[in-house]
Design a protein that fits this description.
Elements: H1 4-11, H2 26-31, H3 38-65, H4 69-78, H5 83-103, H6 107-115, H7 122-132, H8 137-160, H9 164-173, H10 175-190, H11 202-212
């Protein structure tokens, strides 16, 4: 039986999984002038949600269903062409693993940690953590969909001194899209690893590489 409380814990921005140090591409978008206010933030988040968000949510849903996490990590690698984003995903995966093993200890998390001492991709770890917490694929997909947009929204508040009420309103208005993406991701995961989406956002890949070369930056990615 799904625990709503466990879902809230996993989706809570205060869960110590390291996401607060990453902007999800927002820092580069702000510098380039693509995010300047609440409206452009909403457009950025919507685009991210339907591309990399959908892909990551499906990976997490598949892991929550119990698909082979090693194969899922390979699938995540194949869907992440940017070396900077692959490194960030594994760093976040390591931090998520530490938090998940302390919160919901289980053999599956132990095995994944042993197989990937330098970190598996974060969505895969999140999906296994969701499974350990008694959550289902839709729950895991919703967690990823939410963090896909909440990370950039929170970062933009800091980067632009955007009114946090406006940023929260952006997230609220994106709720139907998040539900849609989570449902699509879970449905794909039920069809197997070969059916997982591979939606991409080339501009995010390009700007991630540029961002990684900056000598001074506020966020890790």
């Amino acid at each position: 039986m799904t625990s709503r409380a466990a879902l809230l814990v996993l989706a809570d921005g205060r869960f110590p999984a390291g996401g607060h140090a990453h902007s999800g591409g927002a820092e580069a978008a702000v510098k380039a002038g693509r995010i300047t206010d609440a409206a452009s933030l909403a457009a950025f988040c919507r685009g991210r949600l339907h591309t990399t968000g959908l892909t990551s949510a499906a990976l997490a849903a598949a892991a929550a269903l119990g698909h082979d996490p090693n194969a899922l990590d390979e699938a995540a690698d194949a869907r992440t062409p940017s070396p900077a984003l692959r490194a960030a995903a594994r760093k976040l995966g390591r931090q998520m693993m530490r938090a998940a093993r302390a919160t919901w200890p289980c053999p599956e998390l132990d095995a994944l940690a042993a197989a990937f001492p330098r970190g598996a991709h974060q969505p895969v770890v999140l999906g296994v953590a969701a499974r350990a917490a008694g959550l289902g694929p839709e729950d895991a997909a919703h967690c990823v969909a939410y963090e896909t947009v909440s990370g950039p929204a929170t970062a933009t508040v800091r980067l632009l001194s955007l009114d946090p009420f406006q940023a929260t309103a952006v997230l609220a208005r994106l709720a139907p899209a998040m539900d849609l993406v989570a449902g699509e991701a879970a449905a794909a995961a039920r069809q197997g690893i070969d059916a997982l989406p591979a939606a991409s956002a080339p501009l995010l890949d390009i700007t991630a590489e540029q961002h990684a070369s900056w000598p001074v930056r506020l966020f890790a990615s």
